[in-house]
Amino acid sequence: MNAAKSPAGLIAAALAYFALARFGMAIFALKPSNLTLLWLPSGIALAMCLQWGWRAVPFIVVASLAANFDGMAAATSPAHLAHTMLAAMTDGLAGVLAMHMFRRMLPGGLARAADLLPFILYVCLIPTAVSSVLLAANLAAGGYLPWSEAGALARVLVLADSLGLLLVYPAYQGWRQRHTAPPLQAHPLLAAIAAVLALLLASRAGMPGMEYFIVPVLLVLSFHTSLLGITAVTALTIVGVMASAAHPAFAAQTTASDTAFRVAALAFSSALTLLGAALQRGQLEHSERTRQQWQDAAEHDALTGLPNRRLFMPKVQLEHQRSLRSGKPYAIAMLDLDHFKAINDCHGHAVGDRVLDAVATVLRDNCRMIDTPARVGGEEFAILLPECSGTQARPFLERLRGKLEELEIAVADQRVSVTVSIGIASFTGVNDTADAVAARADRALYQAKQAGRNCSIVDAVAA
Q1: Are 86 and 64 in contact (CB under 8 A)?
Q2: In this entry, which stretches build a coiled coil (predicted)?
């Protein structure tokens, strides 16, 4: 059995939920003592639901109940057990809601920068808003806090739970992708951790404002490590910052010069972070443009600019799948220039290239927008014609053959003309395949050449 899917793994995740809940209560506690400014278990609950589905919910509820019981039992509410159970069930509900929103809105996970906004909105804010309102109402109804404070508490809980999701889920995704991601490099991680600790200690030892430089450090780290690495260091950093800020022992008296330095440090670190992000984005955009240029070069014929076989056949496969869904036919026409070798032999390859380019221009100028003309061989062209059968495509292809027959290329005091043979085949039904349609078009092309060239023939299967 897969260890990640086993009951032992589920129990271990529930224990992690409990441990992180108790850790948060010990470090970031609010009133009542089981409410915290950072609720990492919300991220654990999402990971559990994504990993085990509905089976994880009872384990989340039990872990939450065990973690919250002492804090809520200490209150004077006579029905504290019922309210504690409701709070635990609310935590389970939050995990399920986040799971459903995640699977619906981000089926591919956090893969692109554009995924961050839907993750924040649909996975973090909406589920936690629902659970926070329910939890705040439950606490107010149980007498743990006045109703007048319920709204303010709900807002705090939304951010605390969302922060837990934002920190834990990327670590979970990084762990899931650990076998395909580049190996973690220890040096950048250790250097970043050392820098963060130094800045944090400096900010608590008479140099307030140094903590603002932590964000640029983490940004630089994100350029040199995997998702798992940056998430782990970020989580440790946030825990350290919030823990130190919550304890009076780290409080420092600030002067006007300290305040001025903090403002300057915040402005400097913000500018540095934004500049780094902009430079990284520019580098990624340049890489994407370069990749697209190489892909276009690999998928298009350098002489004519038409798609080549590498691009043409995948387009045929896509159109075939569309025809299977819609029931509408499509046709493939294979075109071969007659006696093209003689043109090269008599006039040279430069003239032959001019002929090929002129033929490609005629194809582009006469095909529909939805058609795909391509050069698939030396003197061989092909056209994908969606939403028409072979017999429906033939009149157009005959007109195209006539235009090519009229084509003349001026060479010194001569004019070079060309004719073309055309084979046509089309999709015949659910038992057909794209490769079979292309093979029948090739067969029809052979028949056209055997029939004397400069003609078009529709394959008998598609007629």
Answers
A1: no
A2: none
d(CA 430, CA 325): 9
Per the structure block, which two tokens stand in for 325?
């869904």
Long-range contacts of range 100-105, CB-CB < 8 Å, 24 or more positions apart? 101/126, 101/127, 102/46, 102/50, 103/50
pLDDT in tens, 226-280: 777 777 787 777 777 776 665 555 555 555 555 556 666 666 666 666 666 777 7
Compute CA distances 152 → 127, 301, 330, 387, whole Å.
Answer: 17, 64, 62, 60
Q: What is the rounded CA–CA span in Å between residue 259 and residue 306?
A: 64
Structural domains of the chain, with CATH: 1-176 (1.10.1760), 183-294 (no CATH), 309-462 (3.30.70.270)
Q: What is the pTM of this model?
A: 0.58
In this structure, the number of other CB atoms found within 10 A of the CB of residue 228 comes to: 19
H-only helix segments in 106-185: 116-118, 126-141, 150-176
Helices (H) then strands (E): counts for the chain: 16, 9
Cα–Cα distance measured from residue 163 to residue 123, given in angstroms and rounded to the nearest whole number: 11
| 435 or 114, which is more confident | 435
